[in-house]
Recover the amino acids of this structure.
């Protein structure tokens, strides 16, 4: 079995880990009823619809 000849420094290890575990931007799409941007598979925050059904009651201040 292969064994490393030299010890890897902490900075090399952390860099390798951080590149694999970075966050990605969530996918946004346009709401079909009001046109506002919303996350996929979530109810719209501005009009309260999900799959063309009213699921939330939106209160405007």
């Amino acid at each position: 079995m292969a064994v490393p000849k030299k010890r890897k420094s902490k900075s090399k290890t952390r860099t390798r880990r951080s590149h694999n575990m970075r966050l990605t931007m969530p996918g946004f799409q346009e709401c079909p009823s009001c046109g506002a941007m919303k996350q996929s598979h979530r109810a719209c925050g501005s009009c309260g619809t999900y799959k063309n059904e009213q699921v939330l009651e939106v209160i405007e201040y």
In short: DSSP finds one helix and four strands in the chain.
